[in-house]
Design a protein that fits this description.
alpha+beta; Glutaredoxin; Glutathione S-transferase Yfyf (Class Pi), Chain A, domain 2; 2 domains; four-stranded mixed β-sheet; globular
Length: 212
């Protein structure tokens, strides 16, 4: 059984959500952020020195990084669910967006958030760089309900967390496709079950504690 080390107000919500979508049993180990600094606790660092979330344990191995964890769970336990068939155009889209969201979109967005507390000229440049990947995602959602094709996949789970970060920064109102996608994702039963077990995603509160 997969053991999920779940950090409050963190990206590990996507792992709980995927497991709930797949109807899989898992062991949940809770870790709480420091209420003042917002940093990961020592208990998570004891599991893996990176003290990152999500973190899972399976087959005696510890694994970090959300995109890799989602793909691992799909390959090990998904039985073809929540991903397109291999060697298809949809599979190409799926891999592209699943990795783009975390690799090309999230980093500039987080950089923009932290730069917003610095000199105005630096903040403006960082904000513009963050908008470039978001515009690409917004364009993809213009005429479709899901990011990787005509069906819900794990890429939508990954995208939802990014949208929650965008919402926390106050930039979601200018991205109607992403906003509508976020609303649809939050309405899914498995999303609600993951929050019931792991607690609210709470990104707005986390950003406020960090000075957002």
């Amino acid at each position: 059984m997969i053991k999920v080390h779940h950090l409050s107000n963190s990206h590990s919500h996507v792992v709980l959500w995927l497991l709930e979508e797949l109807g899989l049993d898992y062991e949940l180990v809770r870790h709480q952020r420091d209420p003042q600094s917002g940093r990961s606790p020592q208990s998570l660092r004891d599991v893996h020195p990176a003290a990152k979330s999500p973190t899972i344990e399976d087959h005696g191995q510890v694994m970090i990084e959300s995109a890799g964890i989602l793909l691992y769970i799909l390959e090990a336990y998904g039985n073809g669910r929540l991903r397109p068939a291999a060697n298809t155009a949809e599979a190409m889209r799926f891999y592209q967006w699943l990795t783009f969201i975390e690799g090309s979109a999230k980093a500039p967005l987080m950089n923009s958030f932290f730069m917003s507390r610095m000199a105005p000229e630096q903040s403006a440049m960082a904000a513009e760089m963050a908008q470039i990947p978001l515009r690409l995602i917004e364009a993809e959602l213009k005429d479709r309900a899901f990011i990787a094709g005509d069906a819900f996949t794990a890429a939508d789970i990954q995208l939802c967390f990014l949208e929650e970060i965008v919402e926390a920064t106050g930039a979601l109102e200018g991205l109607p496709g992403m906003k509508a996608h976020l609303e649809r994702m939050r309405a899914r039963d498995a999303y609600k079950k993951a929050e019931a077990k792991g607690g609210p995603v709470g990104i707005k509160g986390l950003f406020k504690s960090l000075g957002g």
